[in-house]
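2024-03-11 09:14:02 INFO worker-7 job=invfold-0412 stage=load source=structure_tokens
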């Protein structure tokens, strides 16, 4: 019987704890730091690495409790190298290493990576100087665009702008006022994509992918799709927008080419790959990649999973999804 450690303290981690606890192969579930909900599903541990530090305390705990698998929920410890740290100390972990996690942690890296491998995405331009970004924005004829901080901004760094004034304000806030700190060292100015947004979750072992139910979340803070983006105001699954035909195209044109390219560049992707996609006319383009389970999407997706979650994640962590069949 396995002992599992979940890193994080949100609703996503509560859902992971609940469903991992249902596995016939799991005897103990620990959550660090956890929350009031996860305390009903396992044992909360007063170790918090969600801001990217304190890795040694977590590792010592994992060795002390003979943890068989650690699942890392939030993006900050993933991008900070927690999975690398655990593996170097002989512990098994589900999640990408820090170099692969740049798909979320560095939007400039992600856009240029997709550009190299012809993965469908919006047109984009990168700036690190406010004056240059300002001149570029004034030169555009299309005023509806998206301005993004290049680094991690807790889901709030992408600003959809309906006119020039909004775009100038967003770029100035990121590059000059520095509202996102070092996450705004660079700004990505992107083409606004028409269509309907949806989320695809691929469980990856470095070469292969298995898909969870697709979802849609509500990003804007107000009713009627109004106001700034948030980390998520709610979600539902399955998303009927992502038909079998669309999912086949997503697999063929986005997920599998990305996995092949990541392996080719020496950074195989192992973990949950969360693709935020814009769908129009059956075609998909990448709005963003995230290196983790979504929150709040996980809470809507996991109840639809028919198989044993622990067996699935353990197989992915071991590089064993090819020919995978749950017991």
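2024-03-11 09:14:09 INFO worker-7 stage=emit residues=327
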């Amino acid at each position: 019987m396995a002992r599992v450690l979940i890193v994080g303290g949100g609703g996503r981690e509560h859902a992971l704890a609940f469903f991992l606890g249902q596995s016939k192969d799991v005897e103990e579930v620990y959550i660090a730091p956890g929350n009031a909900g996860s305390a009903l599903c396992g044992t909360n541990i007063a170790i918090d690495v969600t801001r990217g530090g304190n890795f040694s305390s977590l590792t010592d705990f994992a060795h002390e409790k003979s943890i068989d698998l650690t699942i890392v929920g939030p993006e900050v410890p993933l991008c900070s190298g927690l999975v690398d740290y655990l593996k170097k100390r002989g512990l098994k972990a589900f999640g990408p290493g820090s170099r692969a996690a740049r798909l979320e942690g560095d939007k400039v890296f992600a856009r240029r990576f997709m550009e190299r491998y012809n993965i469908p995405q919006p047109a984009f331009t990168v700036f690190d100087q406010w004056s240059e970004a300002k001149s570029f924005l004034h030169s555009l004829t299309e005023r509806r665009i998206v301005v993004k901080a290049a680094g991690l901004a807790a889901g709030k760094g992408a600003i959809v702008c309906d006119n020039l004034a909004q775009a100038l304000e967003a770029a100035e806030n990121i590059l000059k006022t520095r509202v996102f700190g070092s996450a705004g060292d660079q700004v990505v100015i992107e083409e606004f994509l028409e269509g309907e947004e949806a989320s695809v979750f691929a469980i990856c072992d470095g070469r292969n992918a298995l898909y969870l139910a697709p979802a849609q979340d509500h990003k804007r803070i107000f009713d009627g799709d109004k106001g700034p983006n948030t980390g998520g105001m709610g979600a539902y699954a399955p998303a009927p927008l992502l038909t079998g035909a669309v999912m086949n195209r997503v697999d063929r044109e986005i997920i599998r080419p990305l996995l092949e390219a990541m392996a080719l560049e020496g950074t195989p992707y192992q973990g949950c790959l969360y693709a935020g996609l814009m769908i129009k006319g059956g075609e998909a383009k990448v709005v963003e990649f995230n290196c983790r389970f979504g929150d709040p999407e996980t809470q809507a997706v996991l109840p639809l999973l028919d198989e044993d979650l622990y067996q699935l994640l353990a197989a992915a962590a071991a590089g064993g999804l090819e020919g995978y069949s749950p017991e």
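2024-03-11 09:14:09 INFO worker-7 stage=report msg="The first helix runs from residue 11 to 20."
2024-03-11 09:14:10 INFO worker-7 job finished
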